[in-house]
Specification:
This protein has 77 helices and no strands. By secondary structure, it is an all-alpha fold. The termini are far apart. Among the domains are: 1-106; 556-654, no CATH class.
């Protein structure tokens, strides 16, 4: 029997290191738990490896924790072989928690696997942080799950990278969340790609934020869609921008709509192009409003057509103008009808040209009013013609004045007639001049009267010719006065005949004097009788002879008295004969002398007797000499008494 069994527990402490070292394995097996518990760290350090391996599990668990830790800290054992797996399993949590980092080497990959989760959990964080890659990889999923968050957080980046994919899949979210941001960033991308739904959903926003670009890019579409809205918002803008367009295109709408405005603005143009219809529709107005000009420019026509009017209306002017013209041309009816006036006002001249006539025809009056004059001036003639009359009538005066001559000339008669008088009145001379005859014919008298005198005077003579009687009859005296001589000459005789005397009186004397024969002869006696004395004086020697007797006799005595000698000289014999005694009497001495001597013979007795005594005194001897004896005999006594001796001598008796 070994002497060991006869030594008391207190006596065992007196054994020297040499005596301890000389013990055989059989002696070691004889040690009681009390004896083992009393061994000092120096004595433990003296136990040879082969002797240590002879200890049973019960004996192993009997070691004093502090003494065991100290004894194993710097011994000279063959460290990997000092303890067997069954001995490792027998270590108490108190013993394990006392181990220093110097004892790490005593654990082989096999003995590491022998530790229970509770044992592993009892190891100090410093101890765990010194485990080699091989020791880490030897841990089972159950063992890893037993590591506390404190232990796990103390793993180095290299230890984390040594974890296998299966091991990573066994980690809890709490363990992953315990890592510092730099350690999170050190996790291999293949391991992140292996995280399950539960792990992903359990990640804190801080952990998600710590992920690097390559790590985020390594996440599958399924994994991305398992993230919560707060987690997706935690992904840094630069990291999110590394996702492929196919990844972005597969993210659920519930997450896309939860991206921050900075995240959306940070997406690349290829990623934006990858957004599908439901994703784009899910974007909030704030997200859309914060999109960059490059992103908006990168949208396809289909994508732009998927945006709601509210989304489009949220854009600033600069961003609206960044949308490609062809994309503006792809806007559908629902979008167009709901666009704000602010959006319409921001459209550039290039963009508005991309709208079809049908699209423009969908705009409301207020939307049309919002179009800038610059953009409106860029609209094609075909686009303008597509506007309904009730749409065009909504244009402001300022807008209409900016239309080019080619645009104005392209307007239909129906469109022009729908314009308010104030809008028509704002048209410039060049615009009015560009109007065709049919367009002029389509304007109402009210619209024509609204034109400025300068613009009215710009109407081509060819257009004046086709103006209807209704149009001309409705012209104001101001407009009539504004007519140029060429325009007056172009007025149709039938139209001229329906003009009121007020309109006729408004004609300037210079314009009246250029009327042709047909025009003068078409004037009614009511019109002629209302001519001003200045207008009568303006009638030329070519015009007067063309007046019919009924027209001439319609002149009042005041009008006749205004006639010049050149005018009376131009009268024909039949016209002179048609003058009434009152008209003859109204002639001034000068105008009476103007009657040609050859026409005097045409005067009747009543006409001659209508000449006043003072007027007869001014008649020329040639005129008196032309009188026949019958005419002379018809002169009154007062008239004869008024004649001078030379005039008497001029009288001849035929």
């Amino acid at each position: 029997m070994s002497i060991i069994s006869s030594i008391s527990a207190s006596q065992i402490t007196n054994l020297t290191t040499t005596q301890i070292r000389d013990l055989r394995p059989t002696d070691m097996k004889q040690l009681t738990t009390a004896q083992i518990n009393n061994l000092s760290s120096t004595q433990i350090r003296a136990i040879e490896s082969t002797d240590f391996l002879a200890l049973s599990g019960v004996q192993i668990s009997a070691f004093n924790s502090a003494n065991l830790a100290a004894g194993l800290s710097d011994g000279t054992y063959d460290k990997p072989a000092v303890m067997a797996a069954n001995q490792i399993r027998s270590l108490t949590t108190a013993q394990l928690s006392s181990l220093t980092t110097a004892s790490v080497a005593y654990f082989t990959t096999k003995t590491m696997q022998a530790l229970s989760p509770a044992q592993l959990n009892s190891l100090s964080s410093d101890f765990v942080s010194k485990l080699s890659s091989g020791q880490i990889q030897a841990l089972s999923a159950r063992q890893l799950q037993g590591l506390s968050s404190t232990q796990f957080s103390n793993l180095s980046s290299s230890q984390l990278q040594s974890l296998t994919t299966l091991q990573v899949r066994s980690l809890s979210a709490a363990q992953l969340n315990s890592l510092s941001s730099d350690k999170v960033a050190s996790i291999e991308t293949r391991d992140l790609a292996a995280l399950n739904a539960g792990q992903l959903r359990g990640l804190s926003t801080a952990t998600v934020k710590a992920l690097g670009s390559d790590q985020v890019k390594a996440l599958s579409v399924t994994q991305l869609n398992q993230l919560s809205s707060s987690q997706i918002r935690a992904i840094e803008t630069g990291d999110l921008s590394q996702l492929s367009s196919s990844q972005i295109g597969a993210i659920g709408v519930n997450l896309i709509s939860k991206l921050s405005t900075d995240q959306v603005a940070g997406l690349g143009t290829d990623q934006i192009k990858g957004l599908n219809r439901t994703q784009l529709a899910s974007l909030t107005t704030s997200q859309v409003a914060n999109m960059t000009t490059d992103q908006l420019k990168g949208l396809s026509s289909s994508q732009v057509s998927w945006l709601s009017a509210n989304q489009l209306n949220s854009l600033s002017s600069a961003k609206i103008q960044a949308i490609d013209s062809s994309d503006i041309g792809a806007l559908n009816a629902n979008q167009l009808k709901a666009l704000s006036t602010g959006f319409i006002a921001a459209i550039s001249s290039t963009q508005i040209k991309a709208l079809s006539g049908m699209q423009l025809g969908m705009l409301s009056g207020n939307q049309l009013k919002a179009i800038t004059t610059e953009s409106l001036s860029a609209v094609g003639t075909g686009q303008l013609q597509a506007l309904k009359p009730n749409q065009l009538s909504q244009l402001t005066s300022t807008q209409l004045t900016k239309l080019g001559s080619d645009q104005v000339s392209a307007l239909t008669v129906g469109q022009l007639s729908s314009l308010s008088s104030s809008v028509v009145g704002a048209m410039g001379s060049d615009q009015v001049k560009a109007l065709s005859s049919s367009q002029i014919q389509g304007l109402s008298a009210t619209q024509l009267n609204a034109l400025s005198t300068a613009s009215f005077a710009a109407i081509d003579t060819g257009d004046i010719k086709v103006m209807t009687a209704t149009q001309v009859a409705g012209l104001s005296t101001t407009q009539v006065k504004a007519l140029t001589s060429d325009q007056v000459k172009a007025i149709d005789t039938k139209v001229l005949a329906v003009m009121t005397y007020q309109q006729i009186q408004a004609l300037e004397t210079g314009d009246l004097s250029v009327m042709g024969t047909a025009q003068i002869t078409s004037l009614k006696v009511e019109q002629l009788s209302k001519l001003t004395t200045d207008q009568v004086k303006a009638l030329t020697s070519d015009q007067l002879p063309k007046l019919a007797a009924t027209q001439l006799t319609a002149l009042t005595t005041a009008q006749v008295s205004a006639m010049t000698s050149d005018q009376t000289k131009a009268l024909t014999s039949s016209q002179v004969q048609a003058l009434t005694p009152s008209q003859i009497n109204a002639l001034s001495s000068t105008s009476l002398r103007g009657i040609d001597s050859s026409d005097m013979v045409a005067l009747t007795a009543n006409q001659l007797q209508g000449i006043s005594s003072s007027a007869i005194q001014t008649m020329t001897t040639s005129q008196l000499n032309a009188l026949t004896s019958i005419q002379v005999q018809s002169l009154t006594g007062s008239q004869m008494s008024a004649l001078s001796s030379d005039q008497i001598a001029a009288l001849r008796v035929n």
